[in-house]
Predict the 3D structure of the following.
Amino acid sequence: GGASGDATRVLFCSCKGETHTYKSGFKQLYRRLRSMYRPEKLDSQEDLCLEVLLGPGTSGLSSSMQGGLPLGGAAAPAILVLGCPTQPFTAAEFDTLRSFLQAGGSLLVCMAEGGEARAGASTNINYLLEEHGIAVNSDAVVRTAHYKYLHPKEALISDGVLNRAMLSAAAGGGKGSSKADNGPSLDVDALLGQTGNG
């Protein structure tokens, strides 16, 4: 069965030279999401606009948003997936992405090892990420001891999350919980990835 009309829209962008798209890299994920969500494809530069990101009837809303919701009806929530963009974003595209986030949209940015400085990549996505206190570093995660994975750039990081709010949310404690002070840890698999600040 397919997803209902009010299901969360997952938008896979392939208009900024992404190395991972719905055709390659995210192909299996794209297929699996069809049962519960509404995966959509953004193939051209013209698709990177508010009307497409927020849904029909929402063009020109950057100045008329109130409380994070567009006027004139609630569009289905959307998640924009950028699978390692390799082309730079224009100022207008950054404005569109900011408006999308302010309207309640979500952004998933995946980057390859080496981040923005990776050979052949000339993206400037850190410009937008830094506005939200996040940055992708130009490095790679390499483990020094063999455990669980065979490749040295595939690492299991146990108890490596320092953000207490993230630990609390992972434990199901919500924003005001103090469970993260004494309790759970969060394991992270870093598979051919880089570090980030945030």
User: Anything to note?
Assistant: The first strand starts at residue 9 and ends at 13. The two ends are 38 Å apart (CA to CA). The helical segments are 27-33, 50-54, 91-102, 126-130, 164-170, 179-182.
